[in-house]
Predict the structure.
Amino acid sequence: MTTHATDTGKVLYRNAFATSLAIDDTNVAAVVASGRARWKIENENNNTLKTKGYHFEHNYGHGKQFLSSLLATLILLAYLLHTLLDLMDDKFCLLLQTLPSRRRLFDDMKALTSYLCFDSWEHLLDFMLEGWSYNPKSPIVRPPKPEIG
C-alpha cells in the first residue's frame, strides 16, 4: 500500500501487508486498522515478556539442538499460566493488589517455597494473604480484558 500527496505525487506512506483478504478501496481502511491493532497487541505482549521478569529477550542459544525453543516455550507457558491466574484465581489477584509488583509476588513465593513446604497452591496463597492481613471483603480488581474486533 502506498499513499501519495495529491499535489506533488510524493510518497507519504508505504507499507506491505500479508493477507488472504481481497483488498479494495472500500475495505482498505478497515484492514489497515485491524492490522495495526494486532501489531499493538503483539508489541504489548512482547514488551511484557521482555520487561516484566520473563527474560524473553535473552537468546538461550546454549544447548545442542532445541534448548532455546524449549526455554522460549516454557516462558510462554508461564506467561499463559500467570494470565489465567489473573483471570480466575481470586486469592492470586488479591496478592497482586497487595504487593507492589508481580516480580515481588514471585520473589516472595520463591523465598517461601525455598524454606517452607506447603500442602497446596491454596495453602501457599492463604499463608501469604494471612501474613499481609488482608480484608476478605476487599474487592478484587482484575486486569482489563482486551477488546476484540
